[in-house]
Design brief:
This protein is mainly alpha-helical and 183 residues long. It has helices at 3-33, 35-63, 70-89, 91-119, 126-146, 151-182. It is 89% helix and 0% strand.
Length: 183
């Protein structure tokens, strides 16, 4: 393989990666425009992942049966599979549960950020941790006080924001790589 063919392949790959980054950004915009659909899609994906995790626990139970892990792995597999099946059969209820879990996660994250900000208080930038904790706590409280009526839009909107930022970050890195390759 010659150097020219490697450069050509790299330029081709960057072009495709840029196109995929733009597609990620557009997907994020669509998720924000139609957050219930994005939330349901995320719920269905998580349901399937839980079922897959349950199957993996069943497999692990089978292979660890001589070590004494059979019952625990089998029970974990049942829980994973049952929750996954429930989420697939009742995606709106699953979405409400995910929204509540997100609120709980943000609350715990805020508490940990407060603790960390007090522990590193003498260091520069510790105030940013406190600010992050305050914003995270406000988000957790907003999710909790408006739950379950917020369930149709919270997960989809946050997923959309994440997709936009991820796609934009990837796009900027690729454009910088393309400029560097052109030099």
């Amino acid at each position: 393989m010659t150097t020219t063919s490697v450069v050509t392949m790299a330029k081709h790959a960057i072009g495709w990666s840029i196109a995929l980054s733009i597609l990620i950004i557009v997907s994020g915009i669509l998720a924000i425009v139609v957050p219930p659909a994005a939330g349901i899609a995320a719920t269905i994906l998580i349901g399937w992942l839980l079922i897959f995790g349950g199957v993996m626990h069943f497999v692990l139970a089978w292979y660890t049966r001589g070590v004494g892990g059979l019952i625990w792995q089998f029970l974990l597999g049942l829980v994973y599979a049952a929750v996954g099946i429930y989420m697939l059969m009742h995606p709106v209820a699953g979405l409400a549960a995910l929204t509540l879990a997100l609120g709980a996660y943000l609350f715990v994250e805020a508490i940990l950020e407060f603790i960390l900000s007090f522990r590193v208080r003498p260091l520069a930038g510790a105030g940013w941790l406190m600010l992050d904790g305050v914003v995270t706590l406000v988000l957790a409280i907003l999710i909790w006080i408006t739950w379950p009526s917020n369930s149709p839009w919270v997960i989809g909107t946050l997923l959309g924001v994440n997709l936009i930022f991820s796609g934009t970050t990837r796009l900027m890195l690729l454009l910088a790589a393309r400029r560097a390759a052109a030099v």
